Amino acid sequence: MSQAAVVALTAASNVRPSKTGNVVSTQPQTLDLHTAIEHGQLSAEFRGNGRDTVRAILTNRTGGQLTVRVAGGQMFESGTNLVVVLRSGEVELRPGTPVEVTIQTAATRSANKFADRGYTLSYGTLPRLKPLLTYAQNHPELSTATLQTAVLALTENLPLSAVSKFSAAGADLPTHFDTSAFRVETGDIVHALLTLRAIGVRDGDLAMNIDPQLKVEAMIEPLTRPFAMRYYGITPATEWDYWKSELLSGDEATRHYALYGIARFYPDIALEMLPKWARETKMAEVFRISAIQALADTQRPEALPILEKLSDEFGSDTELGKAASNSAKFLNTSLAKLSANRTATVSFRSSVATSQFQ
Fold first, then answer.
1. Which domain of life is it from (predicted)?
2. 45 pairs with which residues across the strands?
3. pTM for the complete prediction?
4. Closest-CA residue to 77 (of 103, 57, 107, 40)
């Protein structure tokens, strides 16, 4: 096995061009993984991590070229661990030469143990995954993390707290198992929800959708925001109304999150609004501190003197004063990095441009 070639499992195809660009008329024998092993034409050893990878050592036992197809939906098992192949693919094998193939998989159970161990082929199937796997085959841009989240949504309908990396702001719904190996970024969750909607799963049937925190978390993240807007039906024309509504009448545990969204995407409004919220003595402290911290999220130089003034007003021995001081330091560091990056870019592009900064 140490001498086995390592290859990628490629998308299955019906024809193969020769080196001259002409289609080869004589195809090697093509068999699916199960059939090839059962007929003794292929020997195989499998090891996986219980989540996203199964490594197969395949050896062609025939006298000629053999193409082995691994079908999406094929399952592997190891004790109570069960994983499913996410995308169909195939590999060409020369006689007698062992080849190591990496197969993209997803766990079908959140109780899977995340550890390297031996696996065997399973004869089991999960028909409910078929629409998802068909969709995944046609959308190679979907990440393994996105598909893993979608798989567990279909097989176990896990709550948001079981799959999100961010901390739950409200009551945390307990799960029966440790799901830390399956926690993903907010963007992966949103892409999983978009994928599930695309294959006909109703939004209201998914436990991940119950917690309102997901929506505001996704809207706050700049890279996730466009996809969150698509999923939740928010347009550029209605986005401000969303933030205003979230701030004034959103879930009590996450209302203050809207201040960060306003700071990031409406910085001009934030520079005028947030200092007032920070100084409002009738406001709950969580809103006042969030308003102070959000000023740094504007990434505007104008916010720096505002934060410094707030720090002086509140005093260094108060929580508000400490928040203002720390936010000013954070913003100052961020602005310095942005300035350094811009200078480095200009210096790289033009020595003439560099001289203008000297």
1. Bacteria
2. 57
3. 0.84
4. 107
Structural domain that includes position 114? 1-12+28-125
Q: Are both 190 and 278 inside the same structural domain?
A: no
Q: How many domains does the chain have?
A: 3
The tens digit of pLDDT for each residue in 28-76 reads: 789 999 999 999 999 999 999 999 999 999 999 999 999 999 999 999 9
Kindly indicate the confidence band of residue 142, based on its pLDDT and cuts at 50, 70 and 90.
Answer: very high
Q: Which of 170, 202, 235 is the last residue of a domain?
A: 235
Instruction: Find residue 78's DSSP bridge partners.
Output: 81
Residue 206 has pLDDT above 50, yes or no: yes
Name the strand (E) or helix (H) holding 344.
Answer: helix 319-349
Count Cα neighbours of 239 within 13 Å in the Cβ-side half-sphere. Answer: 16
165: Cβ contacts below 8 Å, ≥ 6 apart = 183, 184, 185, 186
